[in-house]
Amino acid sequence: MTVCIEYWISVASPWTWLGSARFMSLVSKTGAAVELLPMELGDVFAATGGKPFAERPVARKTYRQLELARWSRRLDIPLNLEPRFYPVDRLPASCLLIAAQRAGHDALPLSHGILRAIWAEERNIADWPTLQAIAGECGLDGASLVSVAKEPAIASQYRLNTSRAIASEVFGAPTFIVDGERFWGQDRLDFLAERLGA
Q1: pLDDT per residue over 105-144, tens digit each?
Q2: Is the pLDDT reported for residue 164 higher than 80?
Q3: Cα–Cα distance for residue pair 13/15, rounded to 1 Å
Q4: Can you give the pLDDT at residue 143?
Q5: Residue 109, burial from CB neighbour count under 10 angstroms (0-12, 13-18, 19+)
Q6: Model confidence band, residue 189 (pLDDT cutoffs 50, 70, 90)
Q7: Burial readout 137-157 (b: 16 or more C-beta within 10 A, e: otherwise)
Q8: pLDDT at position 1, please?
Q9: Of 141, 39, 178, whose CA–CA distance to 95 is shortest?
Q10: Which of 4, 118, 126, 184 is most buried, most CB within 10 Å of its CB?
Q11: Which letter, b or e, does each residue of 63-83 get, where b requires 16 or more Cβ atoms within 10 Å of its Cβ?
Q12: How far apart are alpha carbons 88 and 24 in whole angstroms?
């Protein structure tokens, strides 16, 4: 029986970026199915006691940057600690991912491309032409996906995802859920692998 992983992400999360390639490798190794669920992290934070980066105390801000730099070096993954386009509106890129899934595509490579764009390539993931180009780089019909992503039903799905995340006790990104068991953070991928028997 194929295991399904709920993969809760914010398209602007540096932690999701740091875990993205390893998660895709784990999925490939185990054959698990993935339900990719972009969510509005600001709303999730508001419901669960978290704070956006800009509103955190200085001590927490500086430590977050220190940890990101450590993990970037440890994993040998490029990461710009102060990307040009951040904070950024997460709605367009999130809707693009939802549109890709509705079209029957494997959206994991696209999510990886979006995360790479903001954290390693200094690109604006709130810009539709940029998103169209990223989709094309992932072998998808970017123009068609952008057209669908702009439909009101897609934004409605994004809001539903966010409500579902809160109901599922998700409070940060990335979060992986298997049969109701939560794994929060890219540094919990080893535990997820154990859960999957990898």
Answers
A1: 999 999 999 999 999 999 999 999 999 999 999 999 999 9
A2: yes
A3: 5
A4: 98
A5: middle
A6: very high
A7: ebebebeebbebbeeeebbeb
A8: 78
A9: 39
A10: 118
A11: eeeeebeebbeeeebebeeeb
A12: 24
- Note the pLDDT of residue 198: 76
The encoded tokens of residue 121 equal 């390539």
Quick check: 38 and 100 in contact, CB under 8 A?
no
Q: The tokens of 182 are what?
A: 């939560």
Considering only CA atoms, which of 110, 156, 154, 155 is closest in space to residue 133?
110
| Summary mean pLDDT of the chain | 97
Phi, psi of 8 (to 5 degrees): -90, 120
Q: Three-class SS string for 72-90?
A: HHHHCCCCCCCCCCCCCCC
Nearest to 142 by CA among 154, 156, 128, 153: 128
Please name each of the domains of the chain with its CATH number. Answer: 4-196 (3.40.30.10)
